[in-house]
TrEMBL record:
<feature type="transmembrane region" description="Helical">
    <location>
        <begin position="61"/>
        <end position="81"/>
    </location>
</feature>
<feature type="transmembrane region" description="Helical">
    <location>
        <begin position="153"/>
        <end position="173"/>
    </location>
</feature>
<feature type="transmembrane region" description="Helical">
    <location>
        <begin position="32"/>
        <end position="49"/>
    </location>
</feature>
<keyword id="KW-0472">Membrane</keyword>
<dbReference type="Pfam" id="PF07155">
    <property type="entry name" value="ECF-ribofla_trS"/>
</dbReference>
<feature type="transmembrane region" description="Helical">
    <location>
        <begin position="185"/>
        <end position="210"/>
    </location>
</feature>
<keyword id="KW-0812">Transmembrane</keyword>
<feature type="transmembrane region" description="Helical">
    <location>
        <begin position="7"/>
        <end position="26"/>
    </location>
</feature>
<dbReference type="InterPro" id="IPR009825">
    <property type="entry name" value="ECF_substrate-spec-like"/>
</dbReference>
<protein>
    <submittedName>
        <fullName>Energy-coupling factor transport system substrate-specific component</fullName>
    </submittedName>
</protein>
<feature type="transmembrane region" description="Helical">
    <location>
        <begin position="123"/>
        <end position="141"/>
    </location>
</feature>
<dbReference type="GO" id="GO:0016020">
    <property type="term" value="C:membrane"/>
</dbReference>
<keyword id="KW-1133">Transmembrane helix</keyword>
């Protein structure tokens, strides 16, 4: 495995979770603004490292910004429907077409930007990390043909809905006193089951509706401007 890939994995799956735990355990969720900024910075590093032989230009960064903005707008548009949101779909599509690092960054930025409308809080860093993970996994799956099928999109949508809820339940449990309890976690997961089902369903609906039209546009942009080609 290449050095930059190892560094990216360490930053995204070791450093960021460590920062989240520090925020909960040491600061009792009181420094979530600082924690959120640190998560954004750490999420940016793997994206820039993914360009091995050159620096990304403004158009490549603009694509991430646009996908994040669309994700925020989509979340706001469906604010009236609890748990029925397109954020995971937009994050996943970015990952499918632009790679794992771009997917993670889009998910993280979408969370912190949309919470300007929905309310920032100690849950924000965990949402950033969770949507980021979903974008990263989508980027890995996008390297296969599996995400070109409806079955693949349906399975990913269900998986993403369950994983989002399970990770956020960790924050729910630890937000009480900074400690993790399996009993409380199981109780929280059970309470959140209707949310989990609804969110998984929304993922499936939005992925089936949006993956092809938006994915095709991203592919055309990549080919037309020669962007998001790390090894070019």
């Amino acid at each position: 495995m290449k050095t930059r890939k190892i560094i990216s994995l360490l930053l995204l799956f070791v450093a960021i979770p460590a920062v989240l735990l520090i925020g909960i355990v040491l600061f009792n969720d009181g420094k979530y603004q600082i924690i959120s900024m640190i998560v954004v910075i750490l999420a940016c590093i793997p994206f820039f490292l993914s360009f091995e032989k050159r620096r990304p230009d403004a158009r490549e960064i603009l694509v991430i910004a646009v996908m994040s903005a669309i994700s925020v707008a989509g979340r706001a548009a469906f604010a009236w429907v609890p748990a029925f949101k397109p954020v995971t779909a937009f994050t996943a599509i970015t990952g499918f077409k632009l790679g794992p690092e771009a997917g993670f960054l889009t998910g993280a930025v979408s969370a912190i930007a949309s919470n300007i409308l929905f309310g920032q809080g100690p849950w924000t860093p965990f949402q950033m990390f969770t949507w980021g993970i979903l974008g990263y996994i989508a980027g890995l799956l996008g390297k296969t043909k599996w995400m070109d099928t409806k079955i693949g999109l349906i399975l990913y949508g269900i998986f993403a809905g369950v994983l989002f809820s399970f990770i956020m339940d960790i924050w729910t449990v630890m937000s009480y006193d900074g400690a993790f309890s399996w009993a409380r976690y199981i109780a929280a997961a059970g309470t959140a089951l209707p949310f989990t089902i609804t969110y998984a369903l929304s993922n499936v609906v939005f992925l089936l509706l949006l993956t092809k039209p938006i994915g095709d546009k991203l592919e055309r942009i990549k080919k037309k401007y020669g962007i998001m080609q790390p090894n070019s």
